[in-house]
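Students often ask why inverse folding is considered easier than folding. One informal answer: many sequences map to the same fold, so there is more than one right answer. In these notes we will look at a single instance of the problem. The structure comes first.
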């Protein structure tokens, strides 16, 4: 079977080297290149025939990510895109898949067996979500439903966890600042806190988020 070429993009050198090592152990795949920035990968893509790329979404800002994915989908429709991330929400995954992403690996799941299963699914043109991500999403959905929270409330919570301001959250979620304020109010009520500064610690205690996100 012909070897397929896989590139990795991760600005963290240690993480990038770890991914390179794992790719080197994958059957049917060989490392095309390892890049610290999306721009470096795109330059290489002009002269290389790459079938797949693993992108750590921390390499690009939240707003720029959608532009990058849209550009790849339009210019390289056959490129298999795998997102490596520690962000985890139903809406985020839905938006990734809507932008042409084929597979999602939760950062806590990043190991050789996961990447092996991921690339095997991708080669068969099947969507893939890593095991821990699937489990966490299921458990979080149960907790979210039990607390009476909406999808928008969870999106606002994840943005707060990233340290975004109300205005930045509204821009990121393409909504109004009033909607953001309403979500924060529902979150305070559901998590039984009276000040915004307690929202993230309470959300971690309730199991709505696992850890602080980048």
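Output (designed amino acids):
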């Amino acid at each position: 079977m012909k070897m397929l070429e896989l590139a990795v993009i991760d600005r963290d050198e240690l993480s990038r080297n770890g991914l390179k090592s794992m790719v080197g152990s994958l059957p049917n795949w060989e490392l095309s290149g390892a890049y610290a920035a999306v721009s470096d990968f795109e330059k290489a893509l002009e002269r290389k025939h790459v079938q797949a790329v693993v992108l750590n979404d921390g390499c690009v800002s939240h707003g720029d990510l959608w532009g990058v994915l849209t550009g790849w989908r339009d210019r390289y429709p056959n490129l298999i895109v795998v997102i490596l991330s520690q962000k985890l929400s139903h809406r985020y995954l839905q938006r990734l898949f809507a932008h042409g992403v084929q597979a999602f690996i939760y950062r806590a799941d990043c190991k050789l067996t996961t990447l092996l299963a991921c690339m095997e699914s991708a080669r068969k043109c099947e969507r893939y979500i890593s095991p821990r991500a699937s489990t966490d999403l299921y458990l979080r959905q149960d907790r979210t439903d039990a607390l009476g929270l909406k999808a928008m409330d969870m999106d606002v919570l994840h943005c707060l966890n990233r340290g975004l301001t109300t205005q930045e959250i509204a821009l990121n979620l393409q909504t109004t600042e009033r909607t953001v304020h309403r979500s924060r109010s529902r979150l305070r009520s559901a998590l039984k806190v009276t000040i915004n500064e307690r929202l993230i610690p309470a959300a971690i205690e309730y199991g709505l988020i696992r850890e602080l996100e980048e």
